[in-house]
Request: fold
Amino acid sequence: MAQNYRDLIAWQKAMDLVEAVYAATANFPSDERFGLTSQIRRAVVSIPSNIAERQGRRSRNEFVHCLSIAHGSLREVETQLLIAMRLRFLDEAEGANVLVVSDEVGRLTSGLARSLERSPNN
Reply:
């Protein structure tokens, strides 16, 4: 297992997702600044934050729990992106590009959690 959360590909890709979501939400209507824009940005920031929280945890089970929380936030972000697309705050192409990054983060966090759960050193 990586010694530092910054070495985890899941964390690195989650950081890429933060950048993509911030760029995608930059042109949302100004009246959404305290609505959907704020909500989606808070949710996306929580993904790498929960992965990083592992650094302070003592057990693999706690890390798996943090990954589960990150995965839940990821699904929240995906739902909010789809809402933004339906409301036409975000065009289909840009939304699809961000969802590709989101899918990758989902695969990585799920794979990491499965790997930890199977590890004999729980």
